[in-house]
Amino acid sequence: MESDKPGQIPSFKVHISADLDDFARNSANFFLEVVNKPEEGQRQLLVALSGGSTPYPVYSLLSKPPYREQIPWEKMHIFWVDERMVAAGHEENNYHQANMHLLSLVPLQKKNIHRIKSEQPACQAARQYASLLSHFAPPGKTLPVFDFIFLGLGEDGHTASLFPGKYQADEMEHPVIAVSGDYQGRPAKRVTFTPALINAARHICFLVHGKEKAEAVKNAIQGIVNPLQYPAQRITAGSGAVVWMLDQDAASGLDRSRTRDFTP
Ligand code: 6PG
Questions:
Q1: Does residue 54 have its Cβ closer than 6 Å to ligand 1?
Q2: Would the CB of 97 count as within 6 Å of ligand 1?
């Protein structure tokens, strides 16, 4: 974990786009670059999606030319960082939202789309997803190494379904856990990746735009170190793995002299 000074959050890479179109294009370019530069001889690509509306413009670009034709969909396995425990066809279901905005529009193999079984009790769905994920772990390891994980950020500072003010007792022992969190009236019962699973990824991309997120971005990247209050601070993968794709509004609270600029 890179850190500027002891007790400070690592100086993550940040890309600040001029506007929403620029944000979507730069985020899509970053994803395209990563999935077309797989690890040596890699047979499959593991990608995890987050819920929420921020990714929609990025998904929309990826589902159309020229991106659609340049992405090795046939090698890709799609997972979810978290899921709200509502029916798969419910408008607030993360699988449903991603399917509508991206997955149904690209040549992904249906068997490679691994949704969280949100119709089951959350604890059962979490156990089952952890078991599924273990089949994708490298030999001798227990956690899969995701090639690309999309993360969002709530105005309250949550990411995935890791909410402020609480550590889950089983957060350190399991890669996937059942949680509950109230946010903007969205379904509270959820299943989520834990930081250990997210931090094992090769590339972690926070997608954040809008003025309403500026405070949460500042706290996550340059605030006092308080991972309980600012759960995004728990995402501290190996140096260089975490990139914050922002627009100018979301970045407006940052001290730019303390950010490391990143260009996809
Ligand atoms: C979820 C998401 C969550 C989301 C943030 C941001 O299931 O709610 O995974 O972590 O990324 O809440 O949501 P918006 O993009 O809608 O602001």
A1: yes
A2: no
pTM: 0.94
Q: How far is CA 186 from the centre of its chain?
A: 18
Tell me which residue of 103, 98, 96, 56 sits closest to 76, measured CA to CA.
Answer: 103
The residue type found at 255 is D
CA of 7 to the centre of ligand 1 (A): 28
CA nearest ligand 1 atom 13, residue: 52
49 Cβ closer than 6 Å to some ligand 1 atom: no
Q: Are 250 and 209 in contact (CB under 8 A)?
A: yes
pLDDT tens digits for 127-145? Answer: 999 999 999 999 999 899 9
Which segments of the chain have a pLDDT < 70?
1-11, 38, 40-41, 239-240
Rounded distance between C-alpha atoms, residue 258 and residue 4, angstroms: 9
Give the closest residue (by CA) to ligand 1 atom 12. 154
Domains along the chain with CATH numbers: 15-248 (3.40.50.1360)
Distance CA(8)–CA(6), nearest Å, equals 5
Task: Decide whether any atom of ligand 1 lies within 6 Å of the 50 Cβ.
Answer: yes
Nearest to 246 by CA among 8, 16, 7: 16
CA-CA-CA-CA dihedral for 180, 181, 182, 187, to nearest 10: -60
